[in-house]
Write a structure and sequence with these properties.
Strand order of the largest sheet: 1-2-3-4
Largest sheet: 4 strands, antiparallel
Distance between the termini: 118 Å
Shape: rod-shaped
């Protein structure tokens, strides 16, 4: 008994090229998704860091005497500023409602976080 090779054994060059193109497109999509995920994760980490910096700044500013909370500086790659604004004063002149605002931006100047709070502070007596 003799076994003959069939003409359908193997793949044609066109079939192999189509399989390579499809595989390449799928790999490109997967790698792009991976890179996008890494960029988003980095941005989320920067935003979390900015939130922590702003929270710390506002807590420190709230604990300081009136008029001493404003300032600016850097924390790692983040630039920050804190402003204190008097919203209103009581008629006796003993207390003032102040608004504390913290702005945090990244090293490219993009604002990452802005937060504000209001606190009662004692007015320093002259």
């Amino acid at each position: 008994m003799r076994v003959e090779a069939s003409d359908n054994a193997g793949f044609t060059l066109v079939e192999v090229l189509v399989a390579l193109v499809v595989s390449s497109l799928l790999l490109a999509i997967i790698f792009d998704g991976s890179a996008t995920g890494r960029r988003r994760e980095k941005a989320a980490q920067e935003s979390r860091r900015a939130l922590l910096v702003a929270d710390n700044l506002l807590a420190r500013a709230a604990a300081q005497p009136m008029g001493a909370a404003s300032g600016q500086g850097t924390s790692g790659s983040l630039a920050w500023s804190v402003d204190e604004t008097v919203v209103s004063r009581d008629p006796r002149g003993l207390l003032a409602l102040v608004e504390l605002r913290a702005n945090v931006a990244d090293d490219e100047g993009h604002r990452r976080f802005t937060g504000a709070l209001r606190r009662l502070k004692t007015v320093p007596q002259q």
